[in-house]
Amino acid sequence: MEGMGSIFNASAMQIVQIHHYAENLHSSEVDKLYQDDAVWIISSSFIIFTMHSGFGLLESGSVSAKDEVNIMVKNVVDVVFGGLSYWSCGFGFSYGDYEPWRNPYIGFGKFFYDPTRDYDSRESINQEGWSYASFLFQLSLATTASTIVSGAVAERAKLKSYILLGCIVILIQALPAHWVWDKEGVFYKKGVVDFAGCSAVHMVGGIIGLIATVYLKPRRNRFNEDSVHQMSSPTNALLGTFLLWWGWFGINAGSVWGITGGRWRLGARAAVATIMASIGGGATAITISFVKTKKLQVNFLINGILSSIVSITAICAVSRPWHALVIGSISSVFSIAILPVLDRLHIDDPVGIVPIHLTSSIWGMIAVGIFCEQDKYLTSATNNMSGLLYSWSFDLLLVQLLCTFTILLYSAATGFLALFLISKSPLGLRVTDYEEQIGADVIEHGLAGTNVARYVLEKPLSTRTFQTVTKAITKWKMLAKKKSRQKRMEAAKLKREAEQETFAQANGAALANGNGATPNGNGNVLHHRNNATNNTNTTNSNGAGPPKRNSVHAFNNQVAPLAVSSTVTTARNAPSTGRRAESTAIEMEGGPLPTAPVPQEAAPVENVPTSSAAVQRKPSWESKPSSAASRK
After folding, report:
1. Angle at the Cα of 405 (from 312 to 172), degrees rounded to 5?
2. Which of 246, 63, 158 is nearest to 428 (CA)?
3. Pairing verdict, β 517-519 and 525-527
4. HSE-up of 623 (CA within 13 Å, CB side)?
5. 104, 457, 512, 588: which one has the fewest Cβ atoms less than 10 Å from its Cβ?
6. Ordered alpha helix ranges (H), 50-194
7. What are 537-552's pLDDT values in tens digits?
8. Residue 546 in contact with residue 499, Cβ under 8 Å?
């Protein structure tokens, strides 16, 4: 343990431990060091991962109800495709250590990272496990950078284009991480202090978000006089704030990279600094809100708390409680003061990316140059440098400013280039005006009918707004159903044509036979009677009584053959059918009735008039029933 003690006392211990400080030692005590530090950063990674839920709730609660599902999906996409991008290339650009290409500006190596491939010997088993833990921690940090951008492009960016943009943001963020945290990085060698990603994560995401929201232009009617863009769910936004608040303890306390070697002290200081900064920022935001508006504005409260936590990330591990309180309060003032400036410049920032992540990260990096205090035991934690209050030297402040300016310039340039190329590609970047009116929940996910009603409620119920939204929704529904309706109509048309063809064939066969049943145009069957001249009435042996039925024909014809027409021959349309039934009953009770003679040469069927006058009716006295049996 004496050798280990000499390592603990060394002032050159690096805080960011991609390679554990005890990797060259081998003993049971060293195994315990690895285990303790690995459990610390793995647990912190789990907490950081919950921040994606917080980002999703905050963003979905801040945008319109017609886009809240889409913004949640984009946060899922950040983890899925952003993680894929980081594993394949991002981690290698940040911490690649291929010696022939080692340089201060970009890493090379460890692409498609597989620690088991790099550490395949039994002696390096501890370093293998540590590499898995450190990769998970860095992945959790990196994906938050692309999540920041999702809030800036809310309600305006296409989902497919955003997936590509998120992957590119991960690669853009990889280089500042190399500059600030890798032991060969250009700013790390100069002595920059950024424990938890104030510059390498929040500043990168914030400046790309600003460039994106300016490039995409404001949402439709955002800055009109009668425009009202309120939060769809302040409750979700506040719940997301709580989850982010919780997650930042994982970022700040986990960024000391372990608890051995005296680093647990820095972790405790980071946790206290996080809560004290949020207290200062929240108290300041509440005070400003009451003084300015006489009410507690929800967006003021959210911006004040989250911006204060962002500003303390750079100095959290060596901050005193009063440092954190002051830094958080000043950050809260900046985050609220920037809001009217954004409105005046017509910069549409739906979720507050600029006040929370950009202005706060700039102030946080500057605050390190003022308040940073060298730790009494781990002097290497701040690269043996102190801020203006404790050294009366501007050296650290100048390094912080140089790092800030470089990262802002680099991230803005590469972010704009990525946005420009995507917008000019076949994918496109911004949704159309029509798609924006309908909302991404309907266009991208087909969730019509769920959030549209809530969207209408949150809008001002002016006649113009109501008509615009109603027409847009109606038009979309008509277009969405047009294809299926055409298919149904085509199928019905084919079915009618088949029925008509079948009817025509049956009708032709019946006419060709001259007897039997003839279907009419309505699908009913008309039983024709033969002409009276072709058949004589048959009586019983006494010469009286009802006529006997012919073996071939049912009854003697009393009318001429009728034309096939729905107006005459249909049972429903022809009242004469009932009269024939009555007359038949009379014949069966009282004997044969006189029948009107029909000419032998009847007119062709097609020439018979289709009106009811063409039917020869019996005298009215014949059609009246003479007994109860006939009425029955």
Report:
1. 85
2. 158
3. antiparallel
4. 11
5. 512
6. 51-62, 68-85, 91-95, 115-118, 125-152, 159-181, 186-190
7. 444 444 444 444 444 4
8. no
Average pLDDT over residues 557-567: 41
* Separation CA 185–CA 187 (nearest Å): 6
Q: What's the CA gap between 525 and 517, in Å, rounded? A: 6
DSSP annotation string for 148-178: HHHHHTTTTB-HHHHHHHHHHHHHHHHHHHH
The tokens of 211 are what?
């460039």
- Please give the full DSSP string across 505-563, using - where no structure is assigned: HHHHHHHHH-SSEEE-TTS-EEEPPBPTTTS-----TTS-SSPPPPSS-SSB--SPPPP
Q: 304, 332 in Cβ contact below 8 A?
A: yes
In whole angstroms, what is the distance from residue 309 CA to residue 282 CA?
10
For residue 390, the tally of other CB atoms under 10 A from its CB is 14
Is residue 263 within 8 A of residue 14, CB to CB? The reply is no
Phi, psi of 530 (to 5 degrees): -75, 160
Above 60 in pLDDT, residue 452? no
Q: How many CB atoms lie within 10 A of CB 415?
A: 24
Q: What is the 8-class DSSP label of residue 86?
A: I
User: Under DSSP, is residue 621 helix (H, G, I), strand (E, B) or coil?
Assistant: coil
Find the angle CA(436)-CA(439)-CA(440) to the nearest 5 degrees: 100
Q: Coil, helix or strand for 74? A: helix
SS3 of residue 243 by DSSP:
helix
Classified as helix, coil or strand, 180 is: helix
d(CA 417, CA 211): 10
Q: Is 572 helix (H, G, I), strand (E, B) or coil?
A: coil
Burial of 594-626, coded b for 16+ CB within 10 Å and e otherwise, reads: ebeebeeeeeebeebeeeeeebebbeeebeeee
In terms of residues, how long is the chain? 632
Q: Cα–Cα distance between 369 and 399 in angstroms, integer?
A: 8
| Angle made by CA atoms 515, 516, 520, in degrees to the nearest 5 | 105
Q: How high is the mean pLDDT of the chain?
A: 79
Residues linked to residue 527 through DSSP beta bridges, in sequence order = 517
Q: CB of 354 within 8 A of CB of 412?
A: no
Which residues have a Cβ under 8 Å from the Cβ of 430 and sit 6 or more positions away?
156, 157, 158, 216, 217, 423
The structure tokens 């039997």 sit at 516
CA torsion, points 199, 205, 206, 209, in degrees to nearest 10?
Answer: 160
Cβ neighbours for 156, distance < 8 A, ≥ 6 positions apart: 216, 217, 219, 430, 431, 436
d(CA 164, CA 582) in angstroms, rounded, equals: 84
pLDDT tens profile 16-53: 778 888 877 777 788 889 999 999 999 999 999 999 99
Task: Give the whole-angstrom CA distance, residue 111 versus residue 97.
Answer: 11
- For residue 331 the two structure tokens come to 């950050």
Position 226 scores a pLDDT of 64
pTM as predicted: 0.71
Distance CA 119, CA 148 (A): 35
